[in-house]
Write a structure and sequence with these properties.
This protein is α+β, with helices and mostly antiparallel strands and 153 residues long. It is built from four helices and seven strands; from the N terminus they run αββββαββααβ.
Length: 153
C-alpha cells in the first residue's frame, strides 16, 4: 500500500512536475532524467520532522529486485532531505518503477556492500562519481528491498 497521509509536493518545480506526470501515466511518461534518456524511479518517503508524504524521482539503480537511493544532491555539501526521512522511517518507503508502486524497507549500506552499490550507481549514472569529488561529505547510499507483507514493520 502506498504511504498514506498528507502529501507535500516537492518545492522543486521540475521534480514536482515529473512525479505528477510519472504517476498520472503509470511511468509511461516522465520516466527519464530530462532529455538524457536515463531511467528514473519515484520513491515515496515519510518526512522525518513533518510526517508528511514526500515523493522524489531518483536515478533508477536496480539489482536483483532491490533499488539504490543515492543521496548525491549533485555534490552539494548537505544530504538531500529524504536521507533524514529514511534514517527516521526506513520502513516507510514506496518504490514506483512502472505502473505499480510497492512497499519497501530501506537500509543504509556501508563497506563492501556500499562499494558494490556505488559501482552500480555510477554505471547507471556516471555523474555520481563527479558529485562525490565535489563534496567533502560521503554520499550516502540506501538499498530498498520489498517489505515482507507477512511481517509488517
Amino acid at each position: 500500500m502506498p504511504l498514506e497521509g498528507e502529501y507535500e509536493p516537492s518545492p522543486d518545480r521540475r521534480s514536482r512536475e515529473q512525479v505528477e506526470r510519472y504517476e498520472a501515466t503509470g511511468g509511461r511518461e516522465a520516466s527519464t532524467l530530462e532529455d538524457t534518456g536515463l531511467p528514473v524511479a519515484v520513491f515515496t518517503t515519510r518526512g522525518a520532522s513533518s510526517g508528511k508524504v514526500r515523493k522524489t524521482p531518483l536515478m533508477r539503480v536496480e539489482h536483483g529486485g532491490a533499488y539504490a537511493m543515492v543521496g548525491s544532491q549533485g555534490g552539494a555539501p548537505e544530504d538531500p532531505a529524504w536521507v533524514a526521512n529514511l534514517r527516521t522511517h526506513p520502513d516507510q518507503v514506496t518504490v514506483q518503477d512502472g505502473p505499480e508502486p510497492w512497499d519497501g524497507v530501506a537500509r543504509e549500506v556501508t563497506g563492501e556492500e556500499k562499494r558494490q552499490w556505488w559501482e552500480r550507481a555510477v554505471a547507471a549514472y556516471p555523474p555520481y562519481a563527479e558529485y562525490q569529488q565535489r563534496t567533502d561529505r560521503e554520499i550516502p547510499v540506501f538499498v530498498v528491498e520489498r517489505a515482507d507483507p507477512a511481517n509488517p514493520a
